[in-house]
Design goal:
Order of helices and strands: HHHHHHHEEHHHHHH
Distance between the termini: 145 Å
Strand content: under 5%
Strand order of the largest sheet: 1-2
Helix content: 55-70%
Number of helices: 13
Number of domains: 1
Number of strands: 2
Largest sheet: 2 strands, antiparallel
Radius of gyration: 36 Å
């Protein structure tokens, strides 16, 4: 039975070994132009390069994740209405809720796609580092020499003299105080970036009505549970794997900050901040923005500003006759026939 599952696992992981090793070796060749190819820094930077390539490939899924989280937050008032309506029929509630999500074009499972797709890459890198360090086992495009070089590479030292920090070392490996300190720093960084990324989403891009209910409870659970999971599991991760995950978290946090800043959800603190920035930018450019309040830019209802001067409508000039123009000039209408009019004097009554 164990051999069967081992064979299945090998068939699944083998393509990933080739993908991971190909990207890493390409970056390693670049860094070897100005760094020691046997040193740990060139291999560690190759892992950072691998992370950037993987995250760049996942950009479409990340955008889909942000949109899904945004739509889920905006739909929470309607979800609560369904919960009140079908509170005694859980099956009907589930059907109506999924129907609502489908009509809105969102998927509650889309927010998990980036992290789920990264997990196989994570485990492939973990096994490559671990087996290269312990057995010199080569995977993918790594030869035995490259696998041994990869597994034995050290930061701030030479593999031949066993000085420095091995990138395969863990907090629990007992490879020295320097390894434990660096691993602890990376575990804290990985945990903190995970927490701050989720906190950023909840504090900046969730409307007030979405901060209560089951969806809010789910987000709060992710806010506190995920960092604890990474902190507990991180003490057993090699330094190379910790660097991968920390770099990935920094990418996620930066990308999420950019998306929320440029396209925030309506009615959120991020939308209000964007409206204020747009108003300030328009003010600097000399563009009048007083006719519509900031709520419109923030996704709310447009409110007319009483202090703003309403634009005057342009009145087209009307064509006038010659008699009308003469009357406006004070001359009065002229008699026809060319005769001059003579004013008559009234006779005095004797």
């Amino acid at each position: 039975m164990f051999e069967f599952f081992g064979t299945i696992g090998g068939l699944i992981m083998t393509p990933l070994y080739y993908v991971v090793s190909a990207v890493m070796l390409a970056w390693h060749k670049v860094f070897s132009l100005f760094l020691d190819p046997n040193g740990g820094l060139s291999w560690l930077l190759s892992i950072v390069g691998l992370t950037l390539v993987i995250r760049a490939a996942l950009i479409p899924l990340f955008v889909k994740q942000i949109k899904s989280s945004r739509n889920m937050a905006l739909l929470q008032p309607q979800v609560r209405e369904l919960q009140k309506k079908y509170k005694h029929d859980r099956e009907r509630l589930a059907q109506e809720t999924m129907k609502l999500y489908k009509e809105a074009g969102t998927n509650p499972f889309a927010s998990c796609l980036p992290i789920l797709l990264q997990m196989p890459i994570f485990f492939a890198l973990f096994r490559m580092i671990d087996q290269a360090a312990k057995k010199g086992t080569a995977h993918g495009f790594l030869t035995e020499d490259l696998a041994d070089q990869f597994g034995q590479s050290r930061l701030f030292g030479d593999a031949g003299t066993n000085e420095g920090i091995p990138i395969s070392g863990t907090f629990l490996s007992g490879d020295g105080t320097a390894v434990m300190i660096l691993a602890a720093v990376l575990v804290v960084a990985m945990t903190a970036t995970t927490f701050l990324t989720q906190r950023q989403l909840m504090a900046k891009n969730m409307p007030p009505e979405a901060l209560t209910g089951p969806y809010a409870q789910q987000q709060k659970m992710l806010l506190y549970v995920l960092p604890v999971v990474f902190a507990v599991g991180g003490v057993a991760f090699p330094i190379g794997v910790l660097m991968y995950w920390t770099t990935s978290n920094l990418w996620t946090m930066s990308q999420q900050f950019y998306v929320i800043r440029r396209n925030p959800a309506p009615g959120t603190p991020a939308a209000k901040a964007k409206a204020e920035r747009d108003a300030e930018k328009a003010k600097r450019k000399g563009v009048s923005t007083g006719d519509v309040s900031l709520e419109k830019s923030a996704g709310g209802t447009a409110v007319v500003d009483d202090e703003a001067e309403a634009p005057r409508p342009r009145v087209q000039p009307q064509r006038q006759t010659k008699a009308q123009r003469s009357k406006q000039q004070g001359g009065g209408p002229r008699p026809t026939g060319g005769a001059k009019s003579v004013p008559t004097k009234s006779k005095k009554k004797r």
